[in-house]
Amino acid sequence: MIEIQAFPRSARRARLMLASALLAGTAASAQAQDEGGAAVSQGAHIDRQTIDGQALASGDDGTIVGVDGRRRLELAVYNNGRAMVRETRQLPLLSGVNRLKFTGVSKALVETSIRLETPSGVTVQAQGFDEGAPGLERLLRRHVGQAVTLVRENPATGEQITTRARLLGLSDGVPLVSVDGRIELAGPDFPWRFTFQGPREARFWQPGVRALVSAEESRGVDLQLSYLTGGLGWEADYDLVLPEAGGEGSLSGWASIRNDSGVGYDNAAVTLIAGEVATQDEPPRPMARGAAMESAADVRRGELGGAYHRYVLPGRVSLADGETRQLPLMDMPGIEVQRAYRVRHRAAAHTRSDPQPQAVAMTLSLAPASREGPLPGGVVRVYERGDDGALRWLGEDRIGHTPVDAPLRLEIGRAFDVQAKRRQTVYERLSDRSYESGWAITLSNATDGPVDVTVVEQLDGDWKLQDAEPAPAERDARNVTWRVEVPAGGATTVRYRVRVNY
Question: How far apart are CA 443 and CA 485, in angstroms?
Answer without folding.
Answer: 9
